[in-house]
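Hi C.,

You asked whether I'd gotten around to modeling the 88-residue construct. I have! Everything is below, sequence then structure, no commentary in between.
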Amino acid sequence: MEEKRKYPRTEIEEPAYVSSGGSVMRCVVRNISLEGAAIDVENPAFVPQHFRLVMAKDSSIVHECRVAWIKKNRIGLTFMNVVQEPPE
């Protein structure tokens, strides 16, 4: 399978929270890059299309996300607040 990501993902296993409209749900971040991440949740049906991903170890790390794909309990995310590199 051809790798289409601009930035390589780093494999991690860190607790985090899906936060949207005052509700919060636990998740585990399985991998992360500058552009997105993959998380595992108990029930993907309760995850909205757009939400904030808040890292449990450092709640100052917050990513605005949108769901890119769902496979069973794993959800692929695209970060909406990615800082674009200036053109060369």
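If it helps when you're writing up: The mean pLDDT is 89.

Thanks,
B.
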